[in-house]
Amino acid sequence: MFQIWKRYAGEIRGKSILDVGTTPDLERQDSNCMIPWFQNEGVNVFLYSPEDISGLASIFPGTTILSTNGFGQPIRASDQSFDWATASAVLEHVGSSDDQVNFIRECARVSDGLFLTTPNRGHWLEFHTKLPLLHWLPRATHRRILRGLGKRNWALESHLRLVGHSELGALARLALGKEFDLTIGEIWTLGMPSNLILLARRKSAAVARSSATHTSIGSVDLPASR
Q: 31-63 burial, b for 16+ CB within 10 Å, e for fewer?
């Protein structure tokens, strides 16, 4: 996913990126894994989360942590403050479809480009619950089954609302309107697209465009780790 974004973004050294939804988790190996990758490429990294992430200052020296307004509140940054905004596996946790539109729109408000990733509802395995196929059922039915299996938190829309390729495109177009060019890439795992990548760039931004911007991102088969 990171490599796909690099090809799309073109020259990134010296650019700024806001990581939206940075997790305070220090246990999982893949938590905040892209932050050092951004830094290694010479990107100026800013972190934002509705949770307390002050402890990450020592984990990721050189980053800037923005203060938070809490869940569902605007990011404390002015319009187009950053070259890029990124959110890795956050969109599926922000709530309803309206909440997801507002999340994409808020990330776009503070940036000139978007790099958002989310698991694909169309994949046969649901990576949060580790249950296959059930998430293909109507959402109300799926949530009822999860409650019956004792997975009450995952049954809450506020905790998990997966989207597929076409729905992500619809949400993004509604959120971004005509101000952004956008494309959706895919990562393949276990025989199907497992992750979706929303890439978008503000049309009016004075950003150097790489040749990759003018071609289809396509599908890439990479390992399952996110």
A: bbebbeebbebebbbbbbbbeebeebeeebeeb
String of DSSP letters for 18-73: EEET-----SSTTTTTHHHHHHHTT-EEEEE-SS--GGGGTTSTT-EEPP---TTS
Confidence of residue 29 (pLDDT cuts 50, 70, 90): confident
CATH superfamily entry for domain 2-122+162-221: Vaccinia Virus protein VP39 (3.40.50.150)
Predicted pLDDT of residue 205:
78
Percent of the chain past pLDDT 70, that is, above it, reads: 91
Q: pTM above the 0.85 mark?
A: yes
> Which has the closest alpha carbon to 7: 202, 161, 197?
197
